[in-house]
């Protein structure tokens, strides 16, 4: 089994590829297979953003592995104007939907309830098969459950500071 424990910088060449769905790219622990069929064990640092299309991983044996986003069934959303597209994005964000944002369009994982809501808002919705690369959040860091305070964890950039006023 090819063991992978760390991310690395992009390179012009690689030894193997993983083609993974968003769900698989979001996991820090995963058993999967390279596109050539080799068994892989991912043991990545927890709390990091999902792997993105084009990311590189370094295997324990020194091989470089490139990540590809697997095409998934998505809803492609377009609207008549920027206001309607912004309104659609607002309603999807209010439901904490993973969302890919393009120039004049939105994409999300196929969901018939959300598709119906978007159509009621006046959006044009079509189903497409494409790699899904949603935004991973405004804070740029991964999700964490740190109880050790700021010395152990901090968001960058710090947008606000909570605490008792003195």
Provide tags for this entry.
166 residues, HSP40/DNAj peptide-binding domain, Alpha-Beta Plaits, six-stranded mixed beta sheet, four-stranded antiparallel beta sheet, 3 helices, elongated, nickel, chaperone, UreE_N, nickel cation binding, unfolded protein binding
The level-1 CATH class of the largest domain: Mainly Beta
In whole angstroms, the N-to-C terminal distance is 56 Å
Number of strands: 10
Assign an overall shape.
elongated
| CATH topology call of the largest domain | HSP40/DNAj peptide-binding domain
Protein model, in words:
The protein has a 6-stranded mixed beta sheet with strand order 2-6-5-1-4-3. A 4-stranded antiparallel beta sheet has the order 8-9-7-10. It is of the alpha+beta class. About 14% of the residues have low confidence. The termini are far apart. The protein folds into 2 domains: 68 residues, Urease metallochaperone UreE, N-terminal domain (HSP40/DNAj peptide-binding domain, Sandwich), CATH 2.60.260.20; 61 residues, Alpha-Beta Plaits (2-Layer Sandwich), CATH 3.30.70.
